[in-house]
Write a structure and sequence with these properties.
mainly alpha, Tetracycline Repressor, domain 2, two-stranded parallel sheet, two-stranded antiparallel sheet, 8 helices, 6 strands
């Protein structure tokens, strides 16, 4: 008997009560970049990720992973044009805003596929080793680079943050509410195989366990959303009070001020 699909807004906890994410195992899948996952989620609202391109246009993606891989391709293209006569938009066309799922986008954004893009997009033939050297330089920079932040690895976290802030914004209110439902719990992407900086224990810094970039970003965005909502509610209360005060008589205002000064 085939198992039914999980609810799109299901939140999964580990044994310690932390929120754990891993779309391929249907764990808190909607919080993952790989939402919507392979099994069609029940009742999932459409996701809108309007991402501004380097050309000044805004492309609306239906998954944050596709938007992220598009941004990566755009980053590589820009630098490849400086290093060799590279065909414009050859890489980004592999990441259309609709028509491919997040898993396919992740696959297309892998190193092996990028090496093929580099070789096919070059105006003159280059070997696989030359393509690999170009890829590694753009992804991680070069030793003793005078601009250590000018590489994809150093830029990728801020790119992801930008995309996640769009995902969990007023454009997608049900996803904002989903993130809010995690409360004050820790959030992390579950490690798979050798792991990555996005996952818990994907890397170790100063002998301390890392919760992973994905979890760190989601916790920060959740805190910022809660703070913004609190500020908004306060402003609404103050505005309603001003409106009410404007329609009150002087006697009513004096009475209200006395009540505030000497509450019962």
């Amino acid at each position: 008997m085939q198992e039914s699909a999980a609810r799109w807004d299901e939140i999964c906890e580990d044994k310690d009560g932390h929120v754990v994410i891993k779309a391929m195992f249907l764990k808190s899948a909607a919080l993952s970049n790989l939402h919507p996952h392979q099994l069609e989620p029940v009742g999932a609202p459409p996701l809108q990720i309007p991402y501004p391109t380097s050309d000044g246009e805004v492309v609306v993606f239906n998954s944050s992973e596709t938007a992220y891989q598009y941004a990566k391709a755009e980053y590589f293209e820009k630098r490849l044009r400086l290093k060799l006569n590279f065909t414009a938009s050859f890489m980004v066309q592999n990441f259309p805003p609709t028509g491919i799922g997040p898993f396919e986008a992740k696959k297309r954004g892998g190193k092996c596929n990028f090496l093929n893009y580099i070789r096919k997009g070059s105006a003159h033939p280059i070997t696989i080793s030359e393509a690999k050297k170009l890829y590694d330089t753009i992804e991680r920079g070069i030793p003793d680079d005078p601009n250590p932040e000018d590489n994809w690895f150093a830029s990728s976290k801020s790119v992801m943050e930008k995309i996640l802030r769009i995902k969990f914004s007023a454009l997608n209110p049900m996803f904002v509410e989903l993130l809010k439902r995690t409360g004050t719990r820790k959030i992390y992407e579950q490690k798979f195989r050798s792991g990555s900086v996005w996952e818990r224990q994907g890397c170790i810094t100063d002998n301390k366990e890392s919760w992973g970039w994905m979890g760190e970003l989601l916790v920060q965005i959740r805190a910022d959303n809660n703070e913004n909502m609190s500020t908004k509610c306060q402003m609404e209360r103050e505005w309603k009070e001003k409106v009410a005060t404007a329609t009150m008589s002087h006697e009513d205002i004096n009475y209200l001020e006395r009540q505030r000064a000497f509450p019962r």
